[in-house]
Amino acid sequence: MAAMQIVDADSHHLSAITDIFNHYILHTNARFETSPLTLVDRREWFSLFARNSRYQLLVAVEGGQVEGFAGSQPYRKTSAFCQTVETTIYLAPDRARRGIGTRLYSALFSRLSEQELNLAVAGIALPNESSIALHEKFGFRRVGIFEDYAIKNGQYLSALWMQKHLMRRQDG
């Protein structure tokens, strides 16, 4: 069996990435969408990660299969947030607790450290202790909870927001 590799996501990974997203949409509250995504839906999103983009999308691949992905994307579209990224990470449903998330986030934060970015933020639908633990392992700290701010399957959902400074600020 081929060893797992962390590589830049390419268009041929998009179908597997979409399948992973859809698993979490259909079977968990980790995603707030209420219906599955299509490849057409994901193509515009995927264009954020074009070569030479400041945003990253990495996949863990083993034996030709996508085991998971991690990325950074704009937090908000206004230029005031140009040094802030929102990070995300998802694993294929049967791939948890194998170190894949740690390897993906290690590679992602190595890349982010080479950019002029100030802050990474992550929103985690509650409950999700494994995601919280992974983010804390990478230096994220809890900054607040949006309580009951989404509804899915007739249930109100809350999310924990976490942040991690990516560079030391040199201001006055």
**What spatial form do the alpha-carbon principal axes imply?**
globular
User: For this structure, what is the CATH homologous superfamily?
Assistant: Gcn5-related N-acetyltransferase (GNAT)
Could you list the spans in which at least 5 consecutive residues all have pLDDT below 50? none
Largest sheet: 7 strands, mixed
Tell me the radius of gyration. 16 Å
Helix content class: 25-40%
Number of strands: 7
Domain module tally? 1
What share of the residues does DSSP label as strand, in percent?
25-35%
Order of helices and strands: EHHEEEHEHEE
CATH fold naming: Aminopeptidase
Give the end-to-end Cα distance, rounded to a whole number of Å: 54 Å
Describe this structure in words.
With 172 residues, the protein is α+β, with helices and mostly antiparallel strands. The protein has a single domain, classed as Gcn5-related N-acetyltransferase (GNAT) (Aminopeptidase, 3-Layer(aba) Sandwich), CATH 3.40.630.30. Helix content is 26%, strand content 34%. The chain has 4 helices and 7 strands. It has helices at residues 14-27, 39-46, 100-112, 129-137; strands at residues 5-8, 57-62, 65-74, 84-91, 119-125, 141-152, 155-165. Strands 1-2-3-4-5-7-6 form a 7-stranded mixed beta sheet, with helices on both faces. Strand 6 and strand 7 (155-165) form a beta hairpin. The longest helix is centred in the first third of the chain and has 14 residues, at 14-27. The protein is globular, with a radius of gyration of 16 Å. The model has no long low-confidence stretch (mean pLDDT 92).
